[in-house]
Design goal:
Length: 144
């Protein structure tokens, strides 16, 4: 009688643990770069930003992740535990793209903004280039 009880308890605990490991869905912002619409998950806390897009196997065609910083900062990104190739746009407080960097999956190389920035926007690698979006262009709809 004790064996089935222990097995059921172990199963419930393992399900609860697995559920606790699932990240809470992030809020989504609808951004635009000219005529191009972006659906970006918004990471504002340190924990959200540290997790970023790690362990994801897929990112929708116009989906991305927006990292929002409280004040202008020197921002660098890396690709630890990130499985998909990404491009990151470093963006100032006015929404102007400062620079865009391509990043290879599962590498520890630093990719940094060339100036202080308030935002970093990660998209599938090549997304900006394929749409002719470059430094100096503006991203609209950014949260303040």
């Amino acid at each position: 009688m004790l064996k089935p009880f222990l097995a059921a308890t172990a199963l419930l605990l393992s399900c609860a643990f697995a559920q606790a490991q699932q990240p809470t869905p992030l809020p989504v912002a609808n951004l635009s770069a000219g005529i191009h619409v972006i659906r970006a998950e918004v990471a504002t806390s340190d924990a959200q930003q540290q997790l970023g897009l790690m362990h994801r196997k897929h990112l929708g065609q116009n989906d991305g992740m927006l990292f929002v910083y409280r004040a202008p900062a020197q921002v660098c990104m890396w690709m630890k535990n990130t499985l998909i190739p990404l491009s990151v746009a470093f963006i100032d407080g006015d929404g102007k793209i400062i620079n865009i960097e391509d990043m290879k999956p599962q590498t520890l190389n630093s990719h940094c903004g060339k100036k202080l920035v308030r935002y970093a926007l990660e998209m599938n690698q090549g997304w900006f280039r394929q749409r002719n979006i470059r430094a100096g262009d503006v991203i609209s709809g950014l949260p303040h």
